[in-house]
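User: Hey, quick favor. My workstation is busy. Could you predict this chain's structure for me?
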Amino acid sequence: MENSFFNSGLFTYGILPLLIFTARICDVSIGTIRIIYVSKGKRNIAPILGFFEVLIWITAISKIMQNLDNYLYYVAYAAGFATGNFVGMIIEEKLAMGVQMIRVFTNEKGMDLVKNLNSGGFGATAIEASGAKEKVCLIYTIVNRSELEKVLEIINEFNPRAFFTIEDIKAVNEGIFRPRRSSAVIPFAGILKYWRKGK
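Assistant: No problem, here it is.
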């Protein structure tokens, strides 16, 4: 009875393609998260994610190799890859990991912007510089990526035409940061951190 189910048309053309599609979404999404952790230097989590990513991928590709004449599996595999990229991008936005440096060029009372940022709980440093046409104030602030939108709101309220750039920062030492809420997307990250402390 069990063998007849796995050999049935419902399993071959319905359930199995759906499983391949779902598995591909999972492994591509995990791969996206793994790349983020690698870029941020999180050596304790990236290998674990890589293990599950490859395990899921091998499981999916093995089913395709066993049924090379079923083109529906190819479509499910490709569709899962495309959807996985989309899901991975959403997860990456939700995680909002790491820190970023915002460099603001303004000629309108730069120290007032520093005070506004400080009032919002953000550290900032101002430097006088010479622009192409006039003197400018160059302001640096390094913030958690999850707080980026709040900082941009403060900058735009101060000067909607202010010119600024944003760069990813791999690591920082000390500084003024607002308390960051713990991420609920990957709860085991915090658990692993405390486990490492106990070793």
